[in-house]
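Retro notes
What went well: the complex prediction finally ran end to end.
Inputs used:
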Amino acid sequence: MIVLADSIVSLRHVDKWYGGNHVVKDMNLEIRSGEFLTLLGPSGCGKTTTLRMIAGFEDATAGIIEVQGQRVEEKEPYQRDVNTVFQNYSLFPHMTVYDNVAYGPTIKKWPKAQIKEQVTKMLELVQMAGYEKRKPDALSGGQKQRVAIARALINNPRVLLLDEPLGALDLKLRKQMQIELKRLQRKLGITFVYVTHDQEEAMTMSDRIAVMKDGVILQIDAPLEIYDHPNCRFVADFIGESNVIEGTVVSAEGSLLSVETDGGLVRTRGEGFAVGERICISVRPEYLAVSAAPVEGFTMRGRVKDFIYMGTVIKTSLDLPGGQEVKFSRFEPDPTLREGDERFIYWPENKSVPIHLTGEVSS
Amino acid sequence: MTAPKKRRNPLPAIAQAGPVSVWMVLFVTVPMLFIIYISFMSRGTFGGVEYTPTLTSYETLADVTYFAVILKSLQVAVVTTAVCLLLGYPFAYYIARKSADVASRLIMLLMIPLWTNSLMRLNAWMLLFQTNGPVNKALLALGIVQSPVKFIYTDALVLLGLITNFLPFAVLPMYSSIEKLQKAMLEASADLGATPATTFRKVTLPLTFPGIFSAIILTFIPALGTYTITDMLGGGKVLYIGNIIKNQFGTIRNWPLGAALSVLLLLITALLIFLYSRFAKIEDMEVL
């Protein structure tokens, strides 16, 4: 195992069992200092459990967890140099905004003047100055979350853990908070470990995304890299929208693969695929294209089913002969297309990703 | 900035509150006013009330004997309440942290004695603690004591009776408060560096305070006024306010004095509720 020099949190061979449920499986994760890392996955994939093990609310059944090179598995949450922003804010309802933010410093017995100065500074940072005397009950969801962030940040944590902090907010506010959080993280240079099931949120904010499923990290990489080169079918499906088409490799010339699908012959590029192997191909809707005349290497055809106007883009869906539906999206409508038209389907070979059906690609 | 208040038609409110108000006035306010009224009247020669105003009853209350009884009753009520809180809080906490079905079973266990007739319960205590009852026999057999201990008609047994009687009333409101306390609050506190003891002091206790105060009210006020428990287990030898009130209305037939004592109890109760309303919003009060 390579231990990165700038790693601030590392998990090595971490397992978590709940009774007979293996929720986190032999996890290895190195979180770099100052990065915004997102644990992304559907509910029940073990992302929150992973975060809670770093915070100390859950004990790892096996494995090593280090924060700043110090093993923390035996430490209680109050002994760990990390802070958490909870999904339901968890502000203390019997305290004012000021007392909530001052909670950590008060316990650590900072001098009064310093506490006052820092609370003021933090509330300004999250744009909540002037709300000091309010009780949490008198705040909106977004305001509560800002206070919760200030309450965590005032402790100068090396790592801030965020457990679906925007989950309870409405869409518009969520988008605004995403950008604010990202800016805040850049400004402060603190490592953020963020848990979400919203892939769009992950794409917007993260430096790196760890896609999880069934207690395992399937792929960990920069958002664009994951988007352009998903290493397995699940990641291709989960991140953004994708057309996933199954077929059999019929020829491989260098990296150029020709694949026989139910709908006809298509092409893609990839290393390490053998003739005769069943694979699937992931093509993003922005790269899928149609043409009235056949394109070299492609014989797949589809019938235009419908057009969906999404605001900025128009999605056109087509039925393949096998019954599968594929979609492409464009900023402008194609005036030559009508419902029921038959078209040849193709894509730039290097904009499609071949994926082994059995096992994962090592990237 | 508040919006100007709209003038509302009061009629619907009156119509809704009407029947309940009438009921309350007839069966609560009127009797209570009558008690207050009587307390300022004279005692009839052969019992009953003579309607000539006097302050005699209240002057009697100032007498040292009564003052001692009141003080003693307050003492016992305070001790009962304190013990109920100290025993009840950990128990309530324990139940609240159990799963729903385990919790409901434990509450059931707590409630069963409450459903038993109180006289039967008290008689059971008497039988247990008799001079040749099971407790004394066990103590003798184990060689802990040489001769039977006298339990019956002592302050200690009265206290035991009061505590066992009022414990469920203390546990239930506190359970209800603790159960509402989210685990995430405790986690947030630990996350911010608080040890479990600090978390208890700064988060758990303040957030469950409404339950604690309800427990105080539901224990202290009845414990102050009770007379069956003190009468039976105390054998009438130790006097408490409740017994005196009962005696004044009963055998002694000095109704004005009994009424004056009742008014005193009312005042203490009102004072407690006033204090509560200063501390917490009344709707937070946990009354089951």
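What we learned: The first helix of chain B runs from residue 11 to 39.
What to try next: split runs per interface for comparison.
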